[in-house]
Every structure is written in C-alpha cells, then in structure tokens.
Amino acid sequence: MKPLVSIIMGSTSDFPVMEAAAKFLDELEIPFEINALSAHRTPAEVEQFAKNAEARGLKVIIAAAGMAAHLPGVIASMTTLPVIGVPIKASLEGLDALLAIVQMPPGIPVATVGINASLNAGILSAQMIALHDEKVAVALKKYKEGLKKKIVAANEELAKVQFKHKIG
Amino acid sequence: MKPLVSIIMGSTSDFPVMEAAAKFLDELEIPFEINALSAHRTPAEVEQFAKNAEARGLKVIIAAAGMAAHLPGVIASMTTLPVIGVPIKASLEGLDALLAIVQMPPGIPVATVGINASLNAGILSAQMIALHDEKVAVALKKYKEGLKKKIVAANEELAKVQFKHKIG
Amino acid sequence: MKPLVSIIMGSTSDFPVMEAAAKFLDELEIPFEINALSAHRTPAEVEQFAKNAEARGLKVIIAAAGMAAHLPGVIASMTTLPVIGVPIKASLEGLDALLAIVQMPPGIPVATVGINASLNAGILSAQMIALHDEKVAVALKKYKEGLKKKIVAANEELAKVQFKHKIG
Amino acid sequence: MKPLVSIIMGSTSDFPVMEAAAKFLDELEIPFEINALSAHRTPAEVEQFAKNAEARGLKVIIAAAGMAAHLPGVIASMTTLPVIGVPIKASLEGLDALLAIVQMPPGIPVATVGINASLNAGILSAQMIALHDEKVAVALKKYKEGLKKKIVAANEELAKVQFKHKIG
Amino acid sequence: MKPLVSIIMGSTSDFPVMEAAAKFLDELEIPFEINALSAHRTPAEVEQFAKNAEARGLKVIIAAAGMAAHLPGVIASMTTLPVIGVPIKASLEGLDALLAIVQMPPGIPVATVGINASLNAGILSAQMIALHDEKVAVALKKYKEGLKKKIVAANEELAKVQFKHKIG
Amino acid sequence: MKPLVSIIMGSTSDFPVMEAAAKFLDELEIPFEINALSAHRTPAEVEQFAKNAEARGLKVIIAAAGMAAHLPGVIASMTTLPVIGVPIKASLEGLDALLAIVQMPPGIPVATVGINASLNAGILSAQMIALHDEKVAVALKKYKEGLKKKIVAANEELAKVQFKHKIG
Amino acid sequence: MKPLVSIIMGSTSDFPVMEAAAKFLDELEIPFEINALSAHRTPAEVEQFAKNAEARGLKVIIAAAGMAAHLPGVIASMTTLPVIGVPIKASLEGLDALLAIVQMPPGIPVATVGINASLNAGILSAQMIALHDEKVAVALKKYKEGLKKKIVAANEELAKVQFKHKIG
Amino acid sequence: MKPLVSIIMGSTSDFPVMEAAAKFLDELEIPFEINALSAHRTPAEVEQFAKNAEARGLKVIIAAAGMAAHLPGVIASMTTLPVIGVPIKASLEGLDALLAIVQMPPGIPVATVGINASLNAGILSAQMIALHDEKVAVALKKYKEGLKKKIVAANEELAKVQFKHKIG
Which of A143, D27, E127, G44 is paired with G166 by a 20 to 30 Å CA distance? Predict the structure, then answer.
C-alpha cells in the first residue's frame, strides 16, 4: 500500500512534537510515511522528494521546521500537492518559524498550522484526503464528535469543585 | 438561588488559573456557576448557553481561553450581557490570546483583562453587579481598602532590611 | 438629568477617535458627559473626579489614553465603578497603550477594549447600564440585530461582482 | 453548476484584498461563490453556512477576517471541510489576525496563509481540488511554470541597468 | 541623616531584584530609604510621598514596577525630582512594564533603565547625586575603573581554555 | 558662559525631532550646545567628547540615535555624567532603537526616554540641573503647572461639542 | 572580466532598494552582476546558480528577499561562498524577512544585514574582497574616512541653528 | 603562527555559547584567538584591539554580545575587517541583542548570525578565510557534505518508529 501523507522533519528531535500527527493518521487508518529531510543540509534530496511526491501517489505533505523554517516553502515550490507547514518552537517562542512558513510570497502557498500544532496538521491532511475518501470523511466526523467528550468530562470535574456560593 | 456570574473555561486545565475569580466571587457572596465550554469543540452548547444566559438571570459572563482565543468573542456575539475575557497564557507568552480576545470588531465588545488575570475578572464582574447591589458595592470598597494592607505589610518587611546607609 | 457614563480623554486630539462612543450613547439616549483629564498633567483633578464619580451618579467610566496609558488604571485605583479603557494608537501601532492599560496588577481591573475601539467602549458601557435599565437593554438588542444588516448589504454588493465561474 | 470553493469575507471592504483569490479560481475555471458572513454579527448564518457546506457540494472554504479574526476558526469548528484562513491587515500590521487564525486549539485546524495573501488562498484551494481533478492539476502545473516568466522578465529589466563595473 | 535617594517598589517580592540598587548606594555611602508603595493600591500614599519628596531632602526617586507599570509615571507627575523607572519582568518578558514606563507623554519624563536593571538604576541615581557631590563623583569613577577588572578576570579564564589551534 | 547640557545627534535629519529639547532648554534659560557625532562614523570624536565632557563643565548629555542605536551607550561608557538616550524612530516603529538604548548591561546606565521623546529628554535634563539650581527648579514647577492649561483648554473645546444626551 | 560579487533579487521591484549595493560596488570598481532569481518560483535556476557560483569566480553573493525570505538561505545551502542576506521590508515592518534570513539552522550561516540595508551589504561584500585585494582595502579605508564628512557637514548645519541660550 | 580569526566576548559566561565557534575553527585548523572585551567597560581596549586587528594579521572578527549589544558594531566602526555579530540570548528571548547588532546604520555593516548561533559564526568566518585558502575551502565542502549524515541518521531512527499504517 502506498502512503497518502508524508510527514517530513529535520531531525529526530522533532519527532516528539510530530508524533501526534502520526498517531492521528494511524488512528484514521490513513497510510503515511515519516522521513527526515533538511532544506539546508540535503537540498538535493528535498528536490528529489518533492518532484516525485505526486507520482508516488502522495496526496498531502506535512513539513515541520523551526527557526528560519524553509522546508515547507521549499517543498511547496517544487510540487503542486498541498503542503502543510508546522512551525516548531526552537527560539523566539516559535514566532520566527511561524513567520518563515506562513508569509510565503504570492504563487507558492503553505497551509500553516499553529506553533508545534502537529495534531492539527494531521487532521488537516485527513480533511483533504476526506474530500474523496468517504471512510476518512466519516472517521473525521466521528473524531469531531469525540472532541465534545472532553468538554463533558471537564464539566463533570468542574461540577465537583466546591464553593459556598457556587450554584450547580 | 440563581447564579449572577458564569465562569466559562475550555478545560479543567484552566481551573488553576480561573480559581481566583471563583474564590473572589465566593468571598463577596455573589452566586456564580462554573462550566466548561469550547467555541470550537462544542459550538452548539456555546450558542445555547449564550442565548439563554440573560433569561436564566445571569448578569455577567467571564470567559477564559488561550491561543486563538475565540470563546469570549463568540459568546459576546450571541448575548448583550457584558462578557469579560481572560486571555490564558498557553503559547507566545499569552500575546496570541490577548490579541484574539481584545481586538474585537466594531459592534461586539469583550471587556478584556490581563493575561491569566482571573482575579481581576472576578473583581470586574463584581463591580458590574455592584452597580445595583449595595451589599456588593460595600464589600468591594472594603476589599479595595484591604489592598493597602499588603503594602503596609511589605513596608514592615522592608523596614527590617539592614544596610549601613539605609535610613529608616 | 445626571450623566450615567463619563467619557474621559487626555486632549481634544483624541476626540475624533472617541466620538463613536459619544454617538452610540446619544443614539441609545443614555445621558453622558465628556471631559479632558490627564493622569500625568492633572493628577489632582483625576483624583477628585474618580473619588466623586459614584456619588455624582455615574455608573461607568470610559477612559482613553495613548502611549504609557495610565489614565484608566489610575482612575480605576480610586473608584469601584467599572472603568473601560480605550488604548489610543499614538506609537508602536498602539501596542504600548494596550499593554499599559490591560496588564493591570491583581486587585484593580480595567475592562479593556481594542486599540482605538471607542464604539465598543460605548457599547460595553451600555451593556452594563442595561443590566438594570430595560429600555437600554431593548435598544441594545435592536442595535445587535442591526449589525446583520451590514452583512446583508455586503452580500448584495458581492452578488453584483461578475466572474465567469462565480456561481450565484 | 455547483460551486466547489466558497470565499467568505466580513464586508465588501475586504473584497479588494480577496479579489485575487476569485480571479485565480476564475482563471482555473473552478466554480466558486463569494459571500459576506461575520462570526460576530451573523453567527446563526455562519452556522447554517458551515453545517450545509459539505452537503451543498463545496470542497474548500476560504475565510478572510481581520483583527480578532474568528471567522475561519468558527467555520472550521462546524464542518470537516478544509478551511483556509486569510488574515486581513486591519491593525497591528495584521499580526493580531494572523495569530487569531493560525493558533487554533488541538482538534480544529485552519490552513492559514500569509497576511492579505488571498492569491495564495486561491491557489491552495485549487491544490486541494486538484487532488481529484486532473484538469485543475494540469492548470496548476501550467500556472507554476508561468511563475518563472516573471523572473525571466525581471532579468531582462535588470540586464538593462547600466553600471561601469556591472558584468553582463 | 536624611536619605538622598528613595527606592520604591510595589511589594517585597520585588526586593530580590531591587537589592542591587540598595547595595550599590550603600557601597557608595549614599544615604537612601526603601519603601513599598503602589500606584493602584495606595494612591493617596503615593501622592503624599511624591509631593513631600523634595521638601524631605530627597534628590532622586527610583521606582520599580511590573506589568502595566504606572508607579514611576504617577510619581513623576507629582514631583519635579528626577524619577528613575525600573521595569520588573513579571509577564511578557517584561516588555509590558518597559513600554508602560518609558513611553510617557510629553511633559512628564521617566528616566528608564533596562528590564530588572536595578543596579543601573542605583548607578544612575548616584550619577545625578555626583553632579554636586565630589565624594560620590570620585567613587563613581573608581567604580567605573573597577568594571574593567571583570574583563581582565574573564581574559585570564579564557586564556586557560585549550584548543589545538588557539593562539595565545 | 559654558553649556550645562549637550545635545548630540547623528545627523541634521534628527534635528526636527530633537528641536523640542533645545526649545525647552532655551525656554528655561539653561545654556546648552548642539553637536553632531556618530558612534560608528566618528568614534574618535565621540571618545574625545565624552572624556572631556565633565571637565568642560557639562552636567548632562542628551544623545539621540536610531536603529542599532549605540551612541548613548558608547558615550555613557566613557563618562560618569548622566546620559539621557532618545530612541529615534527610523525603522521597526523605533523598537530597535529603544531596545538598543535601554537594555544596557550592568554598570553603564542610560536614562532612556520614549521613542522620539526629545521634549521629555530636555525636561529630564532640567530636572537634574534643578537639583542644585533654584532658578531652574522654580521654572520647572511653573512649567509643570502650565501642563494643566492644555487640559483646561481641551475641556473648553469638549464643552462645545453638542450631543442631545450629553450633559454639561 | 569576471564578476566577483553577485547581487540576486526576486523581482525588479527590489531594485530601488538594492541599487545602493550596486552603486557602492561600482564606486569601488569591484566587478559585479545583478540577476533576478526566486527560491520559490525558479528553484532549479537557483540551484544552478548556487552550484556554479564558485567555479564562475564569484567570491560573495548578496541575496535580497522579503516576507518568508528563503532565497539567501537556500543559496547558502548549495555553496560554501559567503552569502549576505538583505531582508526586504514588504510586510510586518520587515521583521518576518529578518527572522527568516538570520535565524538559519546550525551549519548554514547567512551573513545578515539590517532591513533594506543594501548599502551595508555592498560594503560587507567589499570587506570580504578586501581581505586579498589591496586596492579594495585602500578604497574601503578611504570610504570609511569619508563617513566622517557627513558628521562635519551636519555640525556645520547645526552650528547655524539659533537659540538664545545655545552656546557655540 | 598568527591567528586569522578573533573571537571576542564580554565575559566568561558567554563561553559556553561561543565554544562551538572555537571548536569549529579548531576542527578546520584555522588559527584563532579568544579574548574578553566590553564595548562599555573597556572602550579603550576595544579601540586598541579594533585598530590593530588588521596589522596583526587577523582576517575576521567574531564578536558576541547580549542585551543592548554594542560590541560588534563598535568594533566594526574601527576596522574594515569583516565583523561577524552573534546576538546572545540574555533577555527578551535575544530579540534586543539581535536588533542592536543587525540594524546598523548605513556605512558600518555587521554580518549578523542567529541568536546564540556561534557555530554559524565560526562557519561564516571560515567561508571568508576560504576565499583565498584552498585547504579551508576543501574542509568546508567536506563539512557541508557531513551535514547530510545527520539526516541519514535521523532517517534511520525514524525508520524504526512503528505505526500500523506507517509505510516504509
């Protein structure tokens, strides 16, 4: 089976952040791959990856990078597949990575999610897959329903908090 | 007895920050409620809460949220009760939550307090209640008087600090 | 008739920004006053104003200030009436005024609205008045309904925009 | 013919910025619609729009908003279609809108593009459509090729610039 | 003996930061005092302090405050003695306090030093005293000479660091 | 007559900003000088100026600079006279100059005023002179009194503004 | 004659900013070239340029880019020649471009100059050339001497400014 | 043997950050020196160092500084050797040091690397040396090749991560 989503990161130190994206794709049974690539250290490999991505059957690329984060933009410049950028917090609270990913020039968009927001990157990739995959679409709706449960659980916890003038 | 103030937060993890608001309302004997709601995970429940708030006798709503903090603004869009927004520090030192709460478009204000400033949210809600509740008004004045005591205590501590050329 | 809301600003140069608050209060027939006061240039007058505000029958104070904007916080320290702070954009895109108003220490809240958001300050003051004034409450609801009209008008404008592949 | 992409904005004043997205979709012959909706002024209409979007055959939603920009996130909370957020520069150089759109909480992603980057929003929506539309995929590749032409033209212009020690 | 410099802070929790100013004044044998005052919690006491400062023989006031730091500016508005402001880092990396202190409106300056820079506040106050106190002037020059010693010591440490291609 | 205050700037383009300091000193009849010096373009002249400043009878130095504003700090490193730094807004809204001036390392303070706040620099220098010059002290108090007049005038202007529900 | 310095920019709209670098190199008689290249629109051409740069005899590359400015870093990843990055102010006051250029990951430096600081980029490139080109070294020293002249001229201008209490 | 590169820092506390530059130069067998100097504490020594640098055979100067970081710019003002500035993170996440180093006025460039990026400073200095030192040029190319190895190793680590739907 071919991967539909490719998760790219610069080093294994990014994996603890990016693991949430992998887990989500696994949960939704969307085949994916994980690789390390660097816009600056392995530009040739990035080019090869980006140019072959569509032919290999990939539908979405998730690229994570910190600091002067060029990886998502560089990949986006070499493919017409949608590229999701995940700014990694490594310095300046992640603001440098956010701006270096989201502020792409006209012509080459990167679909940027929040700082360290790898779960959201995974969900967003699934939303794109779901446009033509009914099973994933159903799973996403179910996942979305599940988000409410955390609120229900939170309410149950908060109901236990005791104050003299707290009602309910 | 019906609650006059409603404290809303997205998860139990916000409770340690928001507890100060609850304690203050309890101290001033203002009936209140605490609930978990999420603008993004339970939009229908948020709508139901906001639209019924006034009819249920609520006077003020305190809503806390972090990151792209939409909860206070979304509630404010569905009621004419005053909504107090508390930006929770979860990323970017809380600056994202502050801007996402305070910079509301013309027509839908949110009364914003400082980052993680839940005590001030509680006090502000009491100030609004006090406009027509003499007991609360008196309690607020007493509380304000009490703020001086911390300064008196601080001065006593500082008076003990010994330097050769320190006078007094 | 006594004013219920007091609009305070540091100079007549703030009036073009603050005019929207005055117009809104006028529209809702809420009696108000407008005065110039400066936390730094007329501290004695600020103190006199703040300490007499409640006795004069005022319910809400709207205070506008730019740069190291101390006026709303200084007034709030001398009254238990709710104080709404309007950060005026005079330098640093208004970020200095926003932080100097919203980041009040524990004990003395200022209900902060967005940068230059005087209309929202006016609405917020009316929302507080409306807690015990049915006429204002009804007028606010009507105003809120009216906000939709701008969207309806915008849709009509956008409907006229012609593109070959635009539907509707 | 049903629209595949829906462009949403808060007022006609956003249209000059968002026009580039519309023009791009028109150029690629992707059917689209343009509507005005406001998370804060017409929350009921936003809900109706978001909940019916998938059933109406929409594939991607582009939502533009400024300041405390809630529209993209609120729509994203009510649909599993991918939502592209365009931060509009209205204050603080657009930084408030960027953070209010991109920093979404876990579970509800918004695919954020740069400040005022409506063309990139249009391209990104086309990239998602192209995953299962060969015609659009081909058009995108052609568009991408065309981006080089601007550089060729720029080089021709720069070649004309005369300096004594400029080579070539 | 009367104090020449007054160090003001909002609470004993600021003392660990402000201690460096006290130690420096002590080292230079400049009589000083330390007190707790709050622009917001004890405005009357602040006014009394500021208005009597000159008559009491004070020459310089050092005022420390965090967040929406009003204390230095409020004191400065009530005296013509030079007021040195020390922004305390309590939130937003201290940027809020810095802006709330330094961006004073025309007419009321505060001599601002760096975030948490209490030693520099002490030195600056001594520089003002030294304008008419030869003993302090001499001590300051000696202190300044001493700053070089740290560099000499650092060089000695660095000289011990061993690298194969390090010269010297 | 010898100057007591020296105003230093990097170029004549800073004069329109710095003129307010000169005018204020002139108004208070404090002898001053104005010179152009650059920490980066004329380091030798800066050194000569700073090292001779005290011997020439100067009491205070006002140094203005923009961008990576080194001039105030460099002068401060070579004299024990108090140095007032004026951050000039030339890029990044003046934030770069502010930080480059105020965030001095321990040992070498610069008394920093707000961005482009040359009037406040002039006043602050006069406040230091006034510590031992009764005439200047009196003039400062008179100037401070005069600040109220602007507020009085503003109130008169605002009194003329007509609204139906405006009181007073 | 072969160019020693290559100036790269993304479009002719950057030329007005970058012209100062070209003029400086021309003045110092350093042969240079100017070309348009885009990291995102012409990645293949950028690669070809970067990989052949050293063989073509180039010594230094000056690359200008705005927003999510990848060009300098991408070139730096493909050559061991020193690359000077010039952040172009196109949005967010140029802060996005500055961070996207300067915050390069370990291993691939970009020698970054200030926002829009193309003259400094030209000078810096000349300083590198001068390490082994006596003629350029002499010209640089002469240029540096010339910087003082502006200060001399500024002083002459300032000497003409008339104030009653201005000395000299 | 004479040093070609000089590493300057303000105190031994900067050495843990700057060690990476030293190690890199050592690895490439480029003779270097390390010294402590302070723009503010030892201005005379800085001047002597900067003015003699070229005559002593130095080719590049690496200067590290934090906060209002003047050292790189002050050295650059006194030599025509290229000066590499390393902003040290000591406050405000290092943003103050970055701006105080990179935003130099026209005429005096500092080649700025990222916050705490001492390795990149070392590499950049080697790139300048390599312009006329074939051995260093070869070593740099080899180092650059080596950067890929980390990516290879990272890929091997990531290949071991097990997910049910992970391919490869």
Answer: E127
Which residues on adjacent β-strands are paired with residue A62? A7, A84
Q: What is the pLDDT along chain D (168 residues), one digit of tens a residue?
A: 899 999 999 888 999 999 999 999 999 999 999 999 999 888 999 999 999 999 999 999 999 999 999 999 999 999 999 999 999 999 999 999 999 999 999 999 999 999 999 999 999 999 999 999 999 999 999 999 999 888 888 899 999 999 999 998
CB contacts of E157 in chain H (<8 Å) are 12, 15, 36
Identify the pLDDT of residue B12: 87
Residue B160 has phi, psi (to 5 degrees) of -80, -20
| Owning domain of residue F82 | 5-133
Give the pair of three-digit tokens for residue B100. Answer: 């996402």
Question: For residue F61, which phi and psi values (nearest 5 degrees)?
Answer: -120, 130
Number of H helices, E strands in chain D: 6, 5
pTM: 0.97
Nearest CA-CA partner of F69 in F49, F52, F83: F83
Q: How far from chain centre, in Å, is Cα G55?
A: 21
Q: Give dist(CA E70, CA E39) in Å, integer.
A: 6
- Nearest of F59, F73, F70 to residue F107 by alpha carbon: F73
Q: List residues of chain G with CB under 8 Å from any CB of chain H.
A: 20, 59, 80-82, 84, 98, 102-104, 106-115, 117, 119-121, 123-124, 127-128, 130-132, 137, 140-141, 143-144, 147
Q: Is residue F22 part of a domain?
A: yes
Where b means 16+ CB within 10 Å and e means fewer, A114-129 reads bbbbbbbbbbbbbbbb
A6, A11, A16, A21: CA torsion to nearest 10: -10
Q: Give the ipTM of the model, two decimals please.
A: 0.97
Please spell the DSSP secondary structure of G6-21, one letter per residue. EEEESSGGGHHHHHHH
- For the stretch D83-93, pLDDT in tens is 999 999 999 99
- How far apart CA B114 and CA B119 sit, in angstroms, is 10
Query: Which of E10, E7, E18 is closest to B153 using CA atoms?
Result: E10
Asked whether B40 and D105 are in contact (CB, 8 A), the reply is: yes
Q: How far apart are CA G96 and CA G92, in angstroms?
A: 6
Tokens of H36: 């402590």
Chains near A with 3+ CB pairs less than 8 A apart are B, D, G, H
High-pLDDT (> 90) share of chain H, %: 89
* Contact predicate C80/C108, CB 8 Å: no
Mean pLDDT of H109-118: 98
Q: Please report whether residue H108 resides in a domain.
A: yes
Q: How far apart are CA E12 and CA E64, in angstroms?
A: 11
Nearest-Cα distance to chain D for G61, in Å, is 14
Q: Measured between alpha carbons, how far is residue D16 from residues B110, D11, D93 in Å?
A: 29, 11, 17
Residues of F with CB under 8 A from a CB of H: 10, 38-41, 43, 47, 66-70, 73-74, 76-78, 91-92, 95-96, 99-105, 107-108, 110
Amino acid at C26: D
**CATH number of the domain enclosing A19:** 3.40.50.1970
Whole-number Å distance between alpha carbons of D127 and D140: 7
Provide the number of structural domains found in chain A: 1
| B26-66 pLDDT, tens digit each | 999 999 999 999 998 889 999 999 999 999 999 999 999 99
Tell me if G145 is assigned to some domain.
no
CA dist list (Å): D122 to C113, C157, D31, D117: 33, 21, 12, 9
User: In this structure, is residue A20 part of a structural domain?
Assistant: yes
First-last CA distance in chain A: 53
Question: Helix H segments across B2-116?
Answer: 15-27, 43-53, 71-76, 95-102
Q: Check: CB of residue A61 under 8 Å from CB of residue A53.
A: yes
Question: Using a CB-CB distance cutoff of 8 angstroms, which residues of chain C are in contact with residue F89?
Answer: 91
